[in-house]
Amino acid sequence: MPYSSSLTDKEWGIIEPLLPKKKRTKPQTWSKREILDGVLYQLKNGCNWCDLPTDLPPYSTVFWHYKQWRAEGVIEEIRDVLHGKVRQQIKKKPNGQP
């Protein structure tokens, strides 16, 4: 069931290439998109991690990935890319340019 914080296919197309690609030795139980939807749900609703809905990945999985991505600067990179796209849409120059 999608939530208001869930990514659209177009949004996912922008964000997916920004997520780290790691070598997997076993099949993933949860997709990166599902994990990111869990992160976005928590950030939007401000709930405790353990209060994520049960149709999202387990909170321990979501929180672990969130910590990893934050430490690697992925969350900030996503923010910066999305911010730049919004500035393009409203025909403003990218940040830092006169």
Write a short abstract of this structure.
By secondary structure, the chain is mostly helical.
Question: What is the topological layout?
Answer:
Layout: H1 9-15, H2 32-45, H3 59-71, H4 74-89
Helix pairs in contact: 2-3
Distinctive features:
mainly alpha, 51% helix, 98 residues, globular, Transposase, IS402-like_dom
> Percent of residues in helical segments?
40-55%
Strand content: under 5%
What's the count of strands? 0
Average pLDDT:
89
Category by helix and strand content: mainly alpha
Pattern of helices and strands: HHHH
Description:
The chain is an all-alpha fold and 98 residues long. The protein has a domain of 68 residues. The protein contains four helices and no strands. The longest helix has 16 residues. The protein is globular and about 40 Å long. The termini are far apart.
